[in-house]
Design brief:
Elements (H helix, E strand, L loop, with lengths): L3 E3 L7 E9 L4 H13 L4 E12 L1 H16 L3 E5 L3 H10 L7 E2 L2 H10 L1
Parallel strand pairs: 2-3, 3-4, 4-5
Antiparallel strand pairs: 1-2
Helix pairs in contact: 1-2
């Protein structure tokens, strides 16, 4: 899991860069990053998945829970830069109907500031 940073496109958007295999071993780091952001009052969350190789059910759950918490505070959690394999997992699970997904970080950050 890469660090967290403010989007260079929109300063009120918190970007979490997830990389590698988001499996049972890596999900706690993702979950901690999401919980930390929300605890700090950052409710416009963007998960950059450009370097992710796969998603487990645990990582999907962590993202869904964080999305629900962010939306409860008037924010949202959206995804960007999905590799084909990650996109396929989201399509198979039907989560493309739940998460807003953007091709670029710039487009995703702009969408979050409009929301």
């Amino acid at each position: 899991m890469s660090g967290r940073r403010v989007s260079s496109f929109q300063p009120d958007v918190w970007v979490i860069e997830a990389s590698g295999r988001l499996d049972a071993a890596q999900t706690p780091a993702l979950e901690a990053a999401l919980q930390e952001a929300i605890a700090q009052g950052k409710y416009r969350l963007l998960i950059h998945l450009g370097q992710a190789r796969c998603l487990s059910s645990n990582s999907l759950k962590a993202m869904l829970v964080a999305r629900q918490r962010a939306r409860a505070h008037g924010g949202d959690l959206i995804l960007c830069c999905l590799p084909p394999r990650v996109q396929e997992v989201l399509e198979i699970t039907g989560l493309t109907q739940i998460f807003a997904i953007y091709e670029s970080e710039e487009d995703a950050a702009s969408a979050l500031t409009v929301a």
